Amino acid sequence: QVQLVESGGGLVQAGGSLRLSCAASGSIFGIGSMGWYRQAPGKQRDLVVSITTRGNTNYADSVKGRFTISRDNAKNSVYLQMDSLKPEDTGVYYCYAMRYQTYWGQGTQVTVSS
After folding, report:
1. Parallel/antiparallel/unpaired status of strands 18-26 and 2-7
2. So what's the pLDDT on residue 102?
């Protein structure tokens, strides 16, 4: 089992920044891709960004140039720097990690006011 704990969400005005963190614990050996999904109210959960163990990234078009993911394999953690935030970035952000199956964090709320 892999446990994921997220932190760093909150309320910010449009144009502001937030940094999310996600730390993995438990059966961490063999964790592959990690990243973030988000779920806006009334919508499905969509991929925001993923990062492999080698650092290859895949960003959703809507966040390219504004969000930056990083990964610290030694700390089994991923981070999401979110800049130039927009109201449409509002939602619950879920960290995930893949190790034979997909594990999810509990989610952290990000609210961007206009």
Report:
1. antiparallel
2. 96
